[in-house]
Structures are given as C-alpha cells and as structure tokens.
Write a structure and sequence with these properties.
- The protein contains 19 helices and 16 strands.
- By secondary structure, the chain is α+β, with helices and mostly antiparallel strands.
- It has three domains: about 120 residues, Roll (Thiol Ester Dehydrase, Chain A), CATH 3.10.129; about 140 residues, no CATH class; about 160 residues, no CATH class.
- The strands form three sheets. Strands 5, 6, 7, 8, 9, 10 and 11 form a seven-stranded mixed sheet that branches. It has a five-stranded mixed sheet with strand order 13-14-12-16-15.
- About 45% of the residues lie in helices and about 25% in strands.
Length: about 450
C-alpha cells in the first residue's frame, strides 16, 4: 500500500467516525428545539398588477403570507397582541423577515380559493420553532424586550420540605420543616417570585377553595433524611451529638399540567451539623441552588391553552365551517377543531389559544368577539357564560338581513380588524376591498388559483 493510499484510508476512517458524530450533534441540537403547531391563513389580493402578469407569483405570495402569519402567531406566545401591533416594524426586522427559517415543516396545506370577500385564501398547518423565535426576540435591545415580552417572570411557587430521621418511628409521617422552607422561600423571593402556601394549594386541589382564587403555578416539594450520630471524645469523655444528612430528594410540579418538571435525588458525603436547625438551613440553601431564575420562566411560558368554545344558535353546518376559518385567521388562535354541531343548539369548537390565558373571558372578548362583531358591523356574537376553560357564545341572527354565513363571507377576514397598517398596505391593492377593510380596522381610520368555495376545503383541514 502506498503512502497516498494509506493517507486516503486514514481520512476515510476519520470521516466514518466524525460524520455520524456531527449528525448526532445536529440531532441533539434539534431535540432541544421547542416547537409549536400552528394553523394560519394566508391572503392575497388578486387585483394586484403583479398577479395579472404572473398567476404563479400570487400562489407564492399566498404561501409566504401564510407562513408569515404562522410565525406571527408563534410570536404571540411571547408578545402581547397589542404590543405586537405597536412594535410591528421592530419585530418585522428581527423575526418576520426570517419567517422561513422558523418553519420546521408544513404539516398540511389547503388549495387556494377565491372568497366572496375578494381575497385569495390559503390555509396551512405548520410546526414553528419557539426556540428560534425566542432567540430572535432576546436579541432585541433590553428596553424594547422588557416593554414587549410577556411577563413570565412572576410565577407563584409553593414550598414544602419534609423531614425524617432515625428518632422518628417509621410508621409516623414526616414533619414539615419551617426552617428549611423559609430559607428556600427567601431564595425564590430574591428572584422576584411570589411564594404561595403549599397547604392552601392543596386545599385548592381538594375543591375547597373560594371562587376566583388559584393555586400556585409551581410546587417545590422536598424530603430530607437525617441520621443522628453520637461521638465520644477520647480526651474528655464528652459525648457530642451531631446530625448527618443521609439523603434528600426534591421535585417541582407544574400545577397547570400536573407534570413533574424536575426531580433529583442526592446523597451528600461527609457532611454533618451540630444541630438539626443548622442542617435544615443548609438544606434549604442546597435545594434553592437546584433552581435558577430562568428555570421557572422557561416552564411558565406555556405556549398554549386549550379551551372548549360552545356556540349557541348556529343556523347550519356550513356556517360553523366558515366560522372555523374565521377563527384560524385570528392572531391569538393557534388551532381550531370543529368538534360537534347542533342546528340552533350548542355547537362545540376546541380552540387552542396562545399563552396561558389568565383572564380568559377578557381575552376572548377582545380577540374573538370584538373583531368578528366589528367585521359584521353588529353584535352577532355575545359571551353568555364562562366556567374555567369552557366558554359559551350566543349567535344572534340579524333581523331582515342576509344569513350570518353570507355576512361572514362577504366582508374581509376578521384578522384584518387589528392588523398593522403596514401589513394591510402591503396586502390590499383593490380600492373597493380597501374601503371595506377601513370600515373594520380602526387603525386605518386613524392613520391561477382554484376558484372553489371554502366549505369543502375546511371540511378536511
């Protein structure tokens, strides 16, 4: 074998080792990428002069707009809707211009259709990278970031540390240690978090809580085991009593989901204390070191909340499908499933909203009911009940006017009611459509596709 052949085989062997390692490294990186599945609607104005010359360009722009809206919805898990509109240009430069890179994959794409509102429509369901969007938002100047990013940094945390030792009979339950708990509470308060009573949280879980009160966002629960030691000093004969820590466990539970988001077991070596309180103070400090400020913030950023939306009085199934399309276009709504229909009775939509949706009734009123009612120019939907994650709307038919399905189809999408003026100027070219959008959008007041109806497409989307 020549030296040249030997060198070649050596390089090939190294590549055999390195390439799989690199692939594994890339896989490991992607495995830490938090993603979210989002349904979004793309729009295009077929009257644009560009599309008259090239119909293919219109389809490309439809897909691009749908991707952009999917990313905008994912941004909405970090940024309040009103802040997104106010800072649209800033987020545009940092995030929206890179929207293609944040889309991990397109799960489903509808055929485009020409709506009675004059727009071309396209629906997609996409997997979007939350980690990439957060990194982009974190690159904003600190002042803008603090002003825009949702307040995830103030969760409530309950604490309970239980203690066992050899002096306590095995049949007895462990005792709570106020000393260790207070040290741990001080640690969390330094982060700016609020501390909840663990006993109170447990009563809430048992159903004995007053209305409009909530349990802690997180519960930190630990158990410590001590072994009392006696040491006789040879010189003096004195007997000293010390406490050795044999083991401690800690876990953290997300009370919104029931998930144990952290757990750890530890067996300290060669560590003892002169009295139990001193030991417990150190335990509180050691448990506190398991958590940093960012730990709770990451888990507090609940990307979405599932809500059962009941609508009373829909006149027919097609109206439900058109309404589902309307919901998909709204920024804070990530996904919609039209589950059950009853003519004139209760129809059920399962709706996934961005974020934790703390004051949900207010959110629903602002981001769903008001935009749709403003689009229709009347009170077509009214909030009549809200119990936890189940809310009910009433559909109010117009007297002496066309059906609500025809009303929904005729006017531009409700998503344009609070769309930033920049997006509308880029999107709408037809003066007649622009006039209708201006009727809906108060911000504007201030400042070769498949031509099929949406019902068949929405049936399977």
């Amino acid at each position: 074998m020549t030296a040249k052949q030997s060198c070649f085989l050596g390089c090939a062997f190294i590549l055999m080792l390195v390439v799989p390692w690199l692939a594994g490294a890339e896989t490991d990186k992607s495995s830490h990428d938090r993603t979210i599945v989002v349904s979004a609607e793309g729009l295009a104005d077929p009257e644009s002069d560009l599309y008259k010359r090239d119909k293919g360009l219109m389809i490309d722009d439809l897909r691009r707009d749908a991707r952009r809206m999917a990313v905008e919805k994912a941004v909405g898990t970090f940024v309040e809707s009103s802040s997104l509109v106010e800072n649209y240009q800033l987020i545009e430069d940092k995030v929206f211009t890179h929207s293609r890179g944040f889309i991990r994959r397109i799960i489903k794409e509808s055929s485009p259709w020409l709506g009675k509102d004059g727009f071309m429509h396209l629906l997609i369901k996409a997997e979007v990278s939350l980690s990439g969007i957060k990194e982009a938002l974190d690159s904003l100047p600190q002042a803008e970031r603090i002003r825009m990013i949702k307040e995830h940094g103030n969760p409530t945390i309950s604490v309970m540390i239980l203690v066992r030792d050899a002096d306590r009979r095995s049949g007895q339950p462990p005792e709570q240690s106020a000393v260790a708990e207070n040290v741990l509470k001080e640690q969390f308060k330094k982060f700016g978090y609020r501390v909840w009573s663990e006993d109170y949280s447990r009563r809430l879980k048992g159903g004995n809580a007053a209305q409009n009160r909530r349990e802690a966002d997180f519960s930190v629960i630990g158990e410590v085991k001590f072994k009392p030691l006696t040491v006789r000093l040879k010189a003096s004969g004195l007997v000293l009593r010390r406490y050795a820590l044999t083991s401690w466990t800690v876990k953290c539970i997300n009370n919104h989901t029931g998930e144990e988001i952290y757990f750890n077991n530890a067996i300290p070596r060669k560590k003892s204390w002169a009295d139990e309180d001193a030991a417990l103070q150190d335990i509180g400090r050691m448990v506190g070191e398991e958590f940093n400020r960012g730990f709770f913030e990451v888990h507090m950023m609940q990307p979405s909340t599932m809500v059962e939306l009941e609508i009373e009085g829909l006149p027919d199934y097609d109206t439900g499908l058109i309404l589902k399309k309307e919901f998909i276009g709204l920024r804070p709504i990530l996904n919609v499933d039209f589950r059950n229909f009853e003519q004139g009775g209760l129809s059920l939509f399962e709706v996934e909203f961005a974020g934790s949706c703390g004051n949900f009734s207010q959110l629903l009123n602002n981001v769903v009911i008001k935009p749709v009612n403003r689009k229709l120019g009347r009170e077509a939907f009214r909030l009549v009940a809200a119990h936890g994650n189940v809310v009910r709307l009433k559909c109010i038919p117009a007297k002496g006017r066309q059906g609500i399905k025809e009303e929904l189809e005729a006017m531009p999408p409700a998503s344009l009611v609070d769309a930033p003026p920049q997006r509308i100027r880029e999107l709408v070219k037809n003066p007649e459509i622009m006039a209708r959008v201006k009727q809906m959008n108060p911000l504007l007041e201030q400042t070769g596709a498949v031509k099929q109806g949406p019902a068949a497409i929405l049936q399977d989307f």
